[in-house]
Amino acid sequence: DITTGAPISLIVDNKEVISSDYDLIKDMPRPGHSDYPARVRYGGFNDYRGGGRFSGRGTVALIMAGTVAKKLLALLNIEILAFTKAIGNLEMEKIVSFEDIRKHRYKTAVRCPDFDIANLMEKSIIKAKDEGNSLGGIIECVGLNIPVGIGDPVFDSLDGDIAKMTPLLAMNSLGHGFIPPPIHAGGLRYHGMSPLVSHAVKEGLATPEAIHQLECYEAGILFSRTEGIIPAPETTHAIASVIRQAKLAKEEGKEKVILFNFSGHGLMDLVGYDKFLKGELKDIELSSKDFEQFIAVLKNHPSPVV
User: How far, in Å, are 102, 229, 260, 262 from residue 266 at the CA level?
Assistant: First the structure.
């Protein structure tokens, strides 16, 4: 319980220093990462490599400092507990005691004290990884026995100080619980890309277009017959949009070059095509009531002022 007052030094040697490993992301921002905003903020002078300021390696310093801080806080009978409450659309609804959090949070790979939901979280993360995707989540943090009056008004409050260190990226959202209807041509759900796609739409760099699945499958079959390639249901969205643009150009008597991204073949999606040809599929429209229900979870959360 007694120290000399000398600074505490903790050192971690970085053994992985191969900068060429990061050449691919130099000009290709990673979904949900700081690559794009950092590049804009610093005019391209940001260090995109593993040892840069935005590297996850920087987290280790915070963990070491936090470990020491927790030991010091314990002398004042102050305890900090944190656990994973949600991953993707999976959220822990079970009410657990502080004692349960202490005992069980580190017994699961996802740091969730509810074993049942933790197992589902692990599977969803593995599935997203296999799809080249990522998932967001919610970490709940609880401070016990914190004295009244900590912090200063407005920006230097306890919540304000925590917010200064939280690596959040503002984005448009329908809530972490939003799950679209199980339609076959529903498009690819790349959660990790959401901040970048949302920002591109907001800045006018991209214009979203919704196309019902029946029109998409019609476009996919037309493409198969003319090009000899069966497109994935997700890819048919782009093809359907191209067909719309081609018909419009024909009506206007204009010659246009239409460029689109063919994201993949549909050899693994023949069941969907079979159901379409049998008339078993239908178009599904989300109502405004559905959107209001999903957005309701954001009601008491802060949002950026535009």
Answer: 48, 8, 17, 11
Q: Which amino acid is at 28?
A: M
| pLDDT confidence of residue 247 | 95
Joined tokens for residue 140: 């709940």
Q: Which backbone phi and psi does 201 adopt, to 5 degrees?
A: -65, -45
- pLDDT 10s digits, 61-79: 888 999 999 999 999 999 9
pLDDT single digits (tens) 75-98:
999 999 999 999 988 889 888 899
Residue 259's closest CA among 271, 249, 272, 245?
A: 245
Q: Which two tokens stand for residue 45?
A: 């002078």
Length of the chain: 306
Q: Which residues have a Cβ under 8 Å from the Cβ of 223 and sit 6 or more positions away?
A: 229, 231, 236, 239
- Helices and strands (H, E) in the chain, number of each type: 10, 3
* 230 contacts 220 by C-beta, under 8 angstroms: yes
Q: Is the model more confident about 2 or about 18?
A: 18
Helix (H) or strand (E) holding 139: strand 137-144
Residue 50, pLDDT above cutoff 90: no
How do residues 182-233 score in pLDDT, each as one tens digit? 676 665 555 566 677 777 888 888 898 889 999 999 999 999 999 999 999 8
Q: Which long-range contacts (CB under 8 A, 24 or more apart) does 38-43 make?
A: none
Query: Which letter, b or e, does each residue of 71-108 get, where b requires 16 or more Cβ atoms within 10 Å of its Cβ?
Result: eebeeeebeeeebbbbbbebbbeeeeeeeebeebbeeb
**Model confidence over 224-242: pLDDT tens digits?**
999 999 999 889 999 999 9
Residue 81 in tokens: 């507990």
Phi-psi region of 44 (alpha: psi -120 to 50; beta: other; left: phi over 0): left
